[in-house]
């Protein structure tokens, strides 16, 4: 030991050496008999000990990562599938299903940035929809027994075009709506469109009969849009077109999205809260922002009906004339045309009966009259989306400088039906 200072080497628990410098003549703090430091340094030594152990653990993890090279998710997914194919373990159906659900959930959390990533994602969603995915050098194919999609990719795996081919059509049709949703990575919208295309053929019939399902729906859509074009000549004002014309504002079929008829827009839909002003009502606003009340034109399974397979509307001057349904322009299908509301509606029983007279007796039996309720109560439930179910307590509305409370008085004579999603239209 020198006269100025001395160095004491201490071994810590992790094998590293700690040097404690001590001044001569000063008080020396040595560990007590129990092997612990004094009260002033116990916390500091304990913190350093934990940090050393954490650093040692991280070094081991880093060295292991460098040596093993962690695999990417596609490689891990392939390894799991190969392990399932090997008959080392007897997995029951429940375990295999749970494992597949886990892999699918992980797949939806991964951003698609490559061709292989796109294939993995499409394989996941097509399997859930009961469709088939196949791949070749030019692109991908999503198919069912009635239609298929051809997804054309470039060398970098970017989507260039999507073509839809129905068994009833000779030529493929490019679909910009499907291209757009794939290019922006909106697989939720892509799934919705696939479901819309598949729903057209959900009929209890043979394939040769189901071939006419899309033909019939397309013929009706052609007549509806021609009628809408005539209406725009008579109703130049957007308010008159929306409220007084036979169809309102019509939007053509877009890929798997059905034709849409918008018939009402509330003033609340036109409020711009950020700019504190009303948006001008026009056709582009209704179609682009998806505002207002609307119905979608669909085809659903039912008993056999005579449905058109050719357009029936003929324009004579400025008025529409409809050809009668005959053998050459119609066919028998176990289906019916349906208008499906985009949101539930409180409907008066008397109004429903008037609609039933127009649509025919085939729509009977889909409504339970015993579960009818008062009109006021259902309007409150509809407007509040189910949040206000007890109108006796009053409905509170909070404004920036005021607070209002409204009470609704029920009338037993106002009986209505709620949640009427569709009206059936029989040609």
UniProtKB/TrEMBL annotation:
Compartments where found: Nucleus
GO biological process: positive regulation of transcription by RNA polymerase II
Pfam families tied to this protein: Med1 (PF10744)
GO molecular function, one term: transcription coregulator activity
CC per GO annotation: mediator complex
Entry keyword set: Activator, Nucleus, Transcription, Transcription regulation
Mediator complex subunit Med1 domain location: 100-363
Chain residue ranges for the region called Disordered: 1-42
Keyword Glycoprotein attached: no
This protein's record includes keyword Transcription regulation: yes
Highest taxon of the lineage: Eukaryota
PANTHER family: MEDIATOR OF RNA POLYMERASE II TRANSCRIPTION SUBUNIT 1
Its job: Component of the Mediator complex, a coactivator involved in the regulated transcription of nearly all RNA polymerase II-dependent genes. Mediator functions as a bridge to convey information from gene-specific regulatory proteins to the basal RNA polymerase II transcription machinery. Mediator is recruited to promoters by direct interactions with regulatory proteins and serves as a scaffold for the assembly of a functional preinitiation complex with RNA polymerase II and the general transcription factors.
The family this protein is said to belong to: Belongs to the Mediator complex subunit 1 family.
Stated name of the protein: Mediator of RNA polymerase II transcription subunit 1
């Amino acid at each position: 030991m020198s006269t100025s200072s001395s160095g004491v080497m201490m071994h810590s628990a992790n094998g590293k050496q700690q040097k404690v410098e001590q001044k001569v003549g000063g008080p020396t703090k040595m560990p007590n008999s129990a092997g612990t430091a004094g009260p002033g340094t116990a916390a500091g030594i304990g913190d350093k000990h934990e940090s050393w152990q954490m650093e040692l653990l991280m070094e081991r993890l880093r060295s292991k990562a460098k040596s093993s090279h962690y695999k990417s998710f596609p490689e891990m997914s392939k390894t799991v599938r190969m392990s399932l194919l090997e008959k080392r373990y007897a997995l029951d159906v429940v375990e295999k299903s749970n494992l597949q659900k886990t892999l699918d959930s992980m797949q939806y959390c991964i951003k698609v940035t490559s061709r292989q990533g796109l294939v993995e994602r499409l394989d996941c969603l097509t399997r859930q929809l009961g469709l088939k995915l196949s791949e070749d050098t030019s692109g991908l194919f999503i198919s069912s027994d009635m239609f298929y999609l051809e997804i054309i990719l470039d060398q970098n795996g970017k989507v260039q075009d999507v073509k839809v081919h129905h068994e009833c059509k000779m030529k493929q049709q490019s679909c910009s709506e499907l291209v757009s949703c794939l290019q922006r990575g909106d697989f939720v919208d892509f799934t919705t469109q696939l479901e819309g295309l598949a729903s057209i053929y959900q009929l209890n019939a043979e394939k040769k009969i189901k071939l006419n399902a899309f033909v019939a729906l397309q013929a009706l859509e052609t007549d509806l849009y021609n009628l809408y074009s005539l209406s725009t000549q008579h109703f130049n004002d957007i308010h008159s077109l929306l409220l007084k014309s036979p169809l309102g504002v019509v939007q053509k079929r877009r890929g798997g999205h059905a034709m849409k008829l918008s018939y009402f827009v509330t003033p609340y839909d036109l409020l711009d809260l950020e700019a504190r002003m009303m948006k001008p009502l026009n056709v582009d606003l209704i179609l682009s922002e998806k505002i207002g009340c609307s119905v979608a034109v669909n085809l659903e399974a039912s008993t056999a009906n005579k449905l058109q397979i050719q357009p029936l509307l003929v324009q004579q001057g400025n008025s529409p004339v409809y050809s009668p349904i005959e053998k050459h322009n119609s066919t028998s299908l176990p289906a019916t045309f349906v208008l499906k509301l985009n949101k539930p509606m409180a409907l008066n029983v008397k109004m429903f009966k008037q609609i039933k007279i127009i649509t025919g007796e085939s729509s009977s039996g889909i409504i339970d009259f015993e579960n009818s309720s008062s009109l006021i109560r259902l309007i409150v439930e509809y407007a509040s989306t189910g949040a206000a179910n007890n109108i006796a307590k009053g409905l509170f509305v909070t404004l920036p400088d005021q607070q209002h409370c409204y009470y609704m008085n029920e009338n037993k004579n106002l009986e209505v039906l709620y949640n009427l999603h569709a009206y059936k239209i029989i040609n």
